[in-house]
Specification:
Elements: H1 4-15, H2 21-31, H3 41-58, H4 64-72, E1 84-86, E2 92-94, E3 99-102, E4 105-110
Antiparallel strand pairs: 1-2, 3-4
């Protein structure tokens, strides 16, 4: 079983240059094998998003620096950002998906960028 916290921890290590991209990909491949049997839906979604980002990178759609920026933008990876953020007015925003520009164009339209809101 792989958890969202484990994935975020490894991503933090990666973006802090304490782990190579190759080592991260190897870890993710091993740990996410058969994850559909015992991991949460959030972990499955996060791994899917990461695999899409890695695929875009592997196909030459992004540089490694752009990939690291995308990984830093995943909620909870860089800093202490929760999945669900609350604004000063009390409205909530959940940032959980990787946005593609079009089905025929596998390049990301948005690299998981967001403005942190105030916590409740």
């Amino acid at each position: 079983m792989i958890t969202v916290d484990q994935i975020r921890k490894q991503l933090r290590e990666l973006v802090a240059n304490k782990l190579t991209l190759e080592a991260f990909e190897d870890w993710l491949s091993v740990e996410s094998w058969n994850m559909h049997k015992d991991s949460s839906a959030d972990a499955i979604k996060l791994v899917g998003d990461i695999e899409l980002m890695l695929s875009c990178f592997d196909e030459g759609g992004q540089s490694e620096a752009e990939l690291m920026v995308a990984f830093r933008g995943i909620p909870g990876v860089f800093g202490d950002t929760p999945d669900v953020l609350t604004s000063a007015t009390g409205s909530q925003a959940s940032i959980r998906s990787f946005v593609w520009s079009a089905p025929s164009d596998r390049r990301p339209a948005s690299v998981l960028s967001y403005t942190p809101l105030l916590r409740a």
